[in-house]
Specification:
- The complex is a heterodimer.
- Chain A has a single domain, classed as Ferritin (Up-down Bundle), CATH 1.20.1260.
- The two termini of chain A are 35 Å apart.
- Chain A contains 13 helices and no strands.
- In chain A, α2 runs antiparallel to α8, α3 runs antiparallel to α4 and α7 packs antiparallel against α11.
- The longest helix of chain A has 30 residues.
- A two-stranded antiparallel ribbon of chain B has the order 1-2.
- Classes of the chains: A mainly alpha, B mainly alpha.
- At the A-B interface, α1, α2, α5, α8 and α9 of A face α2, α3, α6, α11 and α12 of B.
- Bound molecules: fe (ii) ion (FE2) (3 copies).
- One fe (ii) ion binds next to α3 and α6 of chain B.
Chain lengths: 275, 317
């Protein structure tokens, strides 16, 4: 994979993570258990969405600068291929609304359904704790755009992590019911945490250029962080077993298709219009 | 002071536009009227999140998605300010929720209509938030201090809501023919229910007179409705859309638009619970509340555990 294509793939994945998690958290809007928490979750959703937009804009710029042959072959999307053939530049919305699931690169964790408050908290906690380490590293990236997006995200991520850690503790060390629900959510979502630390081709390529990093090296610190919160939450650390992966390479769970069906509906039904 | 002099003191304050504060003496009916009105308003904000919340997952661009999400979040914030204002009158938020869930308390009936296309996000912002602003600006001078102050904060955000709605309508009206059709269809469906938002005509509105005397209300339903029609007609013209009222005509003599008769049977039917979405809206809130019970219980239990541990540690020290 050449450098620019790797950078594009990498940037897209980070954008897709943000969009899909933001989308999932947005599903709570109007349906939360406590009005104040409804507002807090929407804030977080907006942060993920905002970060996704900055990243998509950057990804679109990287894409538009690729040689035509690379552009034409990059996505299996009729609509984007048409834009390439017509020599129009693509934008953030083209990337979000015109790619099918196999061109989405988000990790499987973020597309898992909300289920209940415990699953939502657990999913966020695993992701936020990873992000708190990831964006700190990424802020040192040799890629100035990614470094500055990371820098800005760090502040938000610190708040996200505080929110999800506190809820882990509240539910874990709350009632018997909340403890049981939280433990179950953690046990089930654990299998999706491994992918956060796997390195695919794009990861390896950007790491070699100092743009990305060795993700596996973040895991010990991440595990420490998780362990300390779970201890306070009186929850048992799940045992390491089979870890699911594939999202980074475009092989998703069944959930993503439904998310995209909803997300992209208007653009698909009324193609090529301004909204 | 005797009850009589309390009343005199209260009347004097009202008469000279001095705001009534939570610790001031106030007549029971004044308190009751305010609780009813503020809580209805709070419930409307919360129920009002649902028809627009519908489209967060389907918004057609990332910018629209973010703006809509922020808008619906604002409505949650409005609900929060208003519940807090109601609480200053001696009722708890949980009691107010109970009244909503049991059907005892009402909310604005406009939210019982379905949002069927993306254009409805435009029409709601433009018309429904627009009508809300008309209703709420005078409330910033309402005699009850906490309500008036809550309305000041709310109104600031409502004008952003109306602008984003109008901007959606503008984009659609200037877009492809099917987008313009979508915008017209939304206007057709939301126009009359928006006019109903100002409440029954003055002649039939039981509470208006007393509320005006208490300076809870500053303008009558019909006066507000007329103001709304006058500004909205102009805005529709700019969009190149047609307001679905054959009798809409400028009246030079009155200096206002004349308009057709509102179907009040439809209004009362929706208020009674027979609107297209009454059941879905209320069920959504009831389910959110019921499904969240274990979460609230956990938060409470955890807070108590923490407190107990802290006290124990303090004793040991
Ligand atoms: Fe509002
Ligand atoms: Fe309102
Ligand atoms: Fe609003």
């Amino acid at each position: 994979m050449n450098d620019q294509k790797a950078l594009l793939q990498y940037t897209l994945r980070l954008a897709d993570d943000g969009l899909i998690l933001g989308h999932r958290l947005g599903e709570w809007c109007g349906h939360g258990p406590i009005l104040e928490q409804d507002i807090a979750l929407t804030n977080t959703s907006l942060d993920h969405l905002g970060r996704a937009r900055s990243l998509y804009q950057y990804a679109a710029a990287v894409f538009n600068a690729l040689p035509v042959a690379d552009k034409a072959a990059f996505f299996t999307s009729v609509a984007i291929q048409k834009e390439v053939a017509e020599e129009t530049a693509i934008d953030e919305d083209d990337l979000a609304y015109l790619r099918d699931g196999w061109d989405y690169r988000n990790v499987l964790l973020v597309e898992q359904p909300n289920q209940d408050w415990a699953y939502t908290v657990a999913r966020s906690f695993f992701y936020d704790s990873f992000n708190s380490l990831f964006f700190k590293e990424l802020s040192k990236s040799t890629d100035q755009t990614l470094a500055s997006i990371a820098e800005k995200s760090l502040k938000e991520v610190t708040y996200h992590l505080r929110w999800s850690s506190e809820w882990c503790v509240r539910l874990g060390d709350g009632t018997d019911e909340s403890h049981a629900r939280m433990q179950q959510a953690i046990n089930e979502l654990w299998a999706y945490t491994g992918e956060l630390f796997t390195m695919n081709d794009a990861d390896a390529a950007v790491a070699a250029q100092g743009i990305g990093m060795d993700l596996a090296a973040l895991r010990p610190q991440w595990k420490e962080l998780v362990t300390s919160v779970f201890e306070e939450a009186t929850m048992a650390m799940p045992t390491d077993a089979w870890m699911h992966k594939g999202g980074k390479d475009g092989r998703h769970t069944e959930y993503l298709g439904y998310i995209l069906a909803e997300l992209q509906f208007v653009q698909r039904a009324y193609p090529g219009m301004e909204w | 002071m005797t009850v009589h002099s309390f009343q005199e003191h209260f009347d004097k304050k009202i008469g000279s536009d001095v705001s009534i504060e939570p610790r001031d003496w106030m007549p029971d009916d004044y308190r009751k009227t305010l609780i009813r009105q503020i809580s209805q308003h709070a419930h409307s904000e919360i129920i009002g999140m649902l028809p627009e919340g519908n489209w967060i997952s389907r918004a057609p661009s990332l910018r629209r998605k973010a703006v809509l999400l922020a808008k619906v979040q604002d409505e949650a914030g409005h609900g929060l300010y208003l519940y807090s204002a109601a609480e200053t009158l001696g009722i708890t938020r949980d009691e107010l929720y109970d009244q909503l869930h049991s059907g005892k308390a009402k909310y604005s009936s406009i939210f019982n209509y379905p949002t069927l296309t993306w254009a409805d996000m435009g029409a709601i912002g433009w018309l429904v938030d627009g009508a809300a602003i008309m209703n709420q600006v005078p409330l910033c001078r309402c005699s009850y201090g906490p309500y008036a102050r809550a309305m000041v904060r709310v109104c600031k955000e409502e004008s952003f809501h109306q602008r984003q709605g109008y901007e959606i309508m503008l984009t659609l009206s200037n877009g492809a023919p099917m987008q313009k059709k979508m915008a017209q269809d939304a206007l057709d469906r939301w126009w009359w229910p928006s006019l109903m938002m100002f409440g029954p005509p003055d002649a039939e509105s039981g509470n208006t007179e007393q509320s005006m005397r208490w300076r809870i209300k500053r303008l009558t339903n019909d006066e507000l409705r007329q103001k709304f029609i006058d500004v909205t007609v102009e805005q529709a013209n700019i969009l190149g859309l047609t307001i679905p009222d054959k009798n809409l005509k400028w009246n030079e003599e009155r200096g206002h638009y004349d308009s057709g008769v509102i179907n009040w049977d439809e209004f009362w039917n929706v208020v009674k619970g027979n609107g297209p979405c009454n059941k879905q809206r209320l069920d959504a809130r009831k389910n959110a509340w019921a499904d969240g019970q274990w979460v609230r219980d956990a938060a409470m239990a955890h807070a108590e555990k923490r407190k107990a541990r802290k006290e124990k540690a303090a004793k040991a020290a």
